[in-house]
Design brief:
The structure is a homodimer. Chain A is mainly β and about 375 residues long. The first copy, chain A, is built from 2 helices and 32 strands. In chain A, a hairpin with a 3-residue loop joins strand 12 and strand 13.
Chain lengths: ~375, ~375
C-alpha cells in the first residue's frame, strides 16, 4: 500500500519516460558488423536500426544466442570474448575473455547456462547465463565445432581432429557428465540438431558422408548417412566451407549445402537416404528454410557471392534468383517467414525482402555486415 | 522507499526508472481466469505472476494470440469482445465488441491483421492489429470453427453446418479473396495447421475421419484421412469435445485426441494413415507435444479431469501420470520444453512442472484458470 502511494507521487515525467521506453523484444535482432567489432540492433516491424553496441572484439565468425526472455544477446567472438548485451538499453551488461580462440556457443534449454566452444585450447566452458561466472570446463584436446543445445540441458558438439561427437549433460553445471561417441568419421567440420531436438548431424570434411546421432538413443552411437555428401571421392577446390547451422528442414527433407559442388543435397529424414540433388549457380554456403513456407534460400561462395537462389521444395528446383548486393554473407527469416533479411558485406547493407513478392522492403546501412540473428531464436532448440 | 522517491527527482533517477522498468517479453504469458473475466500475467523465468488485467468480458472458451513483438495479447472473448492488452503496462490498450458470439481468432503471418471467428452471425471479421479498426468481413452463414493463420497472410477455417473449409487470403485486407472447399465432410468441429504451415486438418463430428487440405495445393480440395477417427460408427457419450488446436506434432506423427474414446490416435504425416492407437485413462481433451522432447501430454474430460498422462513417443505408450489438481483444463509448454504449465480450475491454481524430473517447480494462485498462452506463440504459425 505504501509503495502504491509513493509511486503515485512520482513526477509525471518519470511515468511517461517509463511508458515510452517500454517495448516488446519479440521483433528485435542483431546484425554483426565484423570489421568494426560492433553489432547493430534492429527491429523487424518497421524494419529499422535502433542502436549499435561496440567494443565486442574480433567478430569474424561471431555467433550469437539469446536469453530466454529475448532481452539479452550473448556474443561469442573469435578472440574468445563472451559479451552479454542488453538489447533494450543498447549496452554491454557483462563481458569476459574466456579463451584465446572461440568458434561458437550455445545456450541451455532452461536458459541458465551459456557454453562457449573453443579452438584453442580446445574444449567447452560453461557459464552462468546471468553473471557469466565460469561454472565448469570440459577439455577435449581437439577443436570443438558444431556446438548446439539439445533437450535435457545437454550440449552436443564434434571434435575436428579426433573424429568424435560428445554429448555433455549440464544438468549439474558444476560437474557435467560427458558421453563420448568415437569413430564417427573423419574431420567433422560443423553440426546441427533437427528442430525437434532429436537428431544431431555432423558434416564430414575428411571423407564422404555425414554422421547421424539419435539423441533419444545415443548409446547406439553414430551412423553414416548420405555417402554422396562431401568431397572425399572427387575433391574440388572449396572457396568457402558451407555452414550446417543454417540447416534447412522443410517437412520430411533436410537441405544440405554440398562441399565444393554446385548443388544442394536433399536428405530424407524418414529413410535417411538421398532424396534429390538440386543444381545451383555456385558453391552454396548457407541453405535456410523459409519458416511456414515452402522455399529454401541459398547463398554462395566466391565468385557467385552476389547471388541468392530460392528453391521451391515442391518442385525441387530453383525458382528465383536475387542480387541483394556484393558479398552476401548470411540470411535470416522472421520467425513466421514473411521477411528475409540478407547481409551484403561489400555494399555495407542489409536488404529486407518480402518473401511473397520478392520486393525489397528496406535497405539498412551497416558496416561490413555478416551474421544476422533475430530474437525468435530464443524459443528454438538448436539455435 | 524514501530513497527511491528522492532518486526519482534527480536527472539520474529518470535513467534508473527507465532501466528498472525495462524487461524482455520472450518469457511472458497469460492465464485466462474465466469466471472473473480477467487474465493473469506470468513470467516463466522465475515462474511468478506479475499482474492481472480485468474487464475482459465473458472469457469462457477464450482464446489468445500475440503481437509479433510479443508485447500485446489479443483476447477473443465468447461474448464477441476483442481486447488488446499491453503485457508490459498491464492494461487494456484497446477493446471492441465485434460480434455477439465468438469462438476464436488468429493473427496474420505479418502481424498486421487480427481475425475473429464468429458463431453468431457467422463469419470472420478482420481488424487492423494496431488500432482494432474493422477492415473487412467475410460472411459465411454458418458457425466458424478451427480458424488458424497460414503462410501468405491467409486465414483458414471450417464451417460446422455447411461442411466446408474456407481459405481467405487477406493480403489485401480491405478486400480479401475467398476460396471455398465444399463437401469436406460432416460437421467439422475444430481444425489446426501443421507447424510447417502446409497442411490444414479439420476434425469431423458428424462422421468418422478428418478432412485434410494441402495448402500448397488447395485447388486439389480436401481428402479424408484416418477413417477410424471420430464417432460415426459407434457413437459414445462425449463428455467434452476434444480440442485440435492443441495438436501434437512429434517428428512424423500427429497425436489426435479421439472423440469419446479412451485413446489417442497417431497419424503418420508421410502416409496419412493410422500409425497407432494409445490407450488412455479417459476421454482426452488436449494432446500437446512437449517441444524439443519426445513426450506428448494429455488431459481429460470428466470424470478423469484431475489427471494428466504423459506418452513416450518412442515407446508409443503412457509412461507417467500426474495429478496436478481438480479440473485440469489446459496445459502449455515453454517453447524449448523444459517446463509444463497446467491449469487446475477447481483448485484455483496453475502448477508448473519440470518436464525432465516431473518435479513441481511452482504453484501459482489463479481464479478458476483455464487457457494458458505463452508469448512464444507469437513466432509460430498456426497459434
Amino acid at each position: 500500500m505504501k509503495t502504491l502511494v509513493l509511486l503515485s507521487l512520482l513526477p509525471l515525467g518519470v511515468l511517461s519516460c517509463s511508458t515510452s521506453n517500454l517495448r516488446g523484444t519479440g521483433d528485435l535482432g542483431v546484425v554483426v558488423e565484423r570489421a568494426a567489432g560492433s553489432i547493430m540492433l534492429v527491429e523487424t516491424t518497421q524494419r529499422t536500426a535502433i542502436g549499435r553496441v561496440g567494443g565486442l572484439g574480433d567478430l569474424s565468425h561471431a555467433s550469437i544466442v539469446f536469453s530466454r526472455d529475448a532481452r539479452y544477446a550473448y556474443v561469442f567472438g573469435r578472440d574468445g570474448g563472451l559479451s552479454k548485451v542488453d538489447l533494450l538499453s543498447a549496452r554491454i551488461e557483462r563481458r569476459v575473455i574466456q579463451s584465446g580462440n572461440a568458434i561458437g556457443g550455445a545456450i541451455s534449454q532452461d536458459g541458465r547456462l551459456v557454453a562457449a566452444a573453443n579452438y584453442t585450447p580446445g574444449g567447452i566452458r560453461i557459464f552462468d547465463a546471468g553473471t557469466l561466472e565460469l561454472l565448469s570446463e570440459v577439455s577435449t584436446g581437439a577443436k570443438v565445432v558444431g556446438i548446439v543445445d539439445a533437450p535435457g540441458n545437454r550440449f552436443v558438439f564434434s571434435l575436428f581432429e579426433a573424429g568424435e561427437i560428445w554429448i555433455v549433460d549440464a544438468s549439474n553445471p558444476r560437474n557435467p557428465s560427458v558421453m563420448r561417441l568415437a569413430d564417427i568419421g573423419k574431420q567433422p567440420y560443423d553440426g546441427f540438431v533437427t528442430p525437434d531436438g532429436r537428431h544431431y548431424i555432423a558434416g564430414l570434411y575428411g571423407e564422404d558422408g555425414l554422421a547421424l546421432v539419435d539423441l533419444w538413443h545415443p548409446e547406439r552411437g553414430a551412423r553414416r548417412v548420405l555417402a554422396g555428401y562431401g568431397r572425399g571421392e572427387e575433391p574440388l577446390p572449396v572457396f568457402k566451407m558451407p555452414h550446417l547451422r543454417g540447416w534447412a528442414a522443410a517437412g520430411r527433407y533436410l537441405f544440405l549445402p554440398a562441399i565444393g559442388r554446385h548443388e544442394v543435397l536433399v536428405l530424407d529424414r524418414i529413410s535417411w537416404t538421398e532424396a534429390a540433388r538440386i543444381p545451383l549457380r555456385g558453391q552454396p554456403v548457407f541453405a535456410v528454410a523459409q519458416p511456414g513456407g515452402r522455399r529454401v534460400w541459398v547463398n554462395f561462395a566466391l565468385p557467385h557471392n552476389d547471388a541468392v537462389q530460392v528453391i521451391d521444395v515442391d518442385a525441387m528446383k530453383v525458382v528465383k534468383e536475387l542480387r541483394p548486393g556484393r558479398a552476401v554473407l548470411h540470411l535470416e527469416f522472421t520467425p513466421r517467414g514473411e521477411q528475409a533479411w540478407i547481409s551484403s558485406r561489400d555494399d555495407d547493407a542489409v536488404a529486407v525482402y518480402d518473401t511473397a513478392t520478392y520486393a525489397e522492403l528496406a535497405r539498412l546501412a551497416a558496416a561490413k555486415p555478416s551474421g544476422i540473428f533475430l530474437t525468435s531464436r530464443a524459443a528454438m532448440t538448436g539455435f
